C-alpha cells in the first residue's frame, strides 16, 4: 500500500519529534534539571536499567522523585544519544538509540556506552516516553579504557 504524501510527511515529523525527545532528555540531564527529565515521560512511564541492583521506576510520582534526587547538578552527567531506529504505529512507537555518557561518580570520571530500548506514545499532541530500558555495554573509570575492562565485573 502506497502512503500519501501527508502520511509520509507525518511520519518524518513524528520521527524527528521522537529524536528531539531523546535529545531533550540528554540536555536536561546535562543541565541538572531532574524535574524536566521526568516530565518527558507519560504519566504511566517507566525507567528500567539492566542492572540487578536497580529497581524499575514506575509512574509519574516515582519518576519525579527519582529524577529530582539523581539529576540535580549541571555537568555531573553528560549523555550523548545517536543511531536511532524508530518504528511508528499511529500514536505509539518503539525504538532503540545508542548512548555514550561521561559522568562523575565518587570523585572519579567515568565513561559508559550502551543503548536504550524505548516505547513512546503521543499524548496531548506530544511524544512522551512510556518505557525506557537502558542496557550498558561498559561503565568504566575514564583513566581505564574499555578494552582493558573487558571481562571485568562492572558496577552501574
Describe the structure.
The mean pLDDT is 91. The chain contains 4 helices and 6 strands; from the N terminus they run H-H-E-E-H-E-E-E-E-H. It is globular and about 55 Å long. The protein is of the alpha+beta class and 156 residues long. It has one domain: Nuclear Transport Factor 2, Chain: A. A 6-stranded mixed beta sheet has the order 2-1-6-5-4-3, with helices on one face.
- Would you list the SSEs in sequence order as H and E? HHEEHEEEEH
State Rg: 17 Å
Indicate the structural class: alpha+beta
- Counted by DSSP, the helix tally is 4
CATH class: Alpha Beta
Helix content: 25-40%
Average predicted local confidence, pLDDT: 91
N/C terminus separation: 46 Å
Which architecture per CATH? Answer: Roll
Integer count of domains: 1
Strand content: 35-45%
Strand order of the largest sheet: 2-1-6-5-4-3
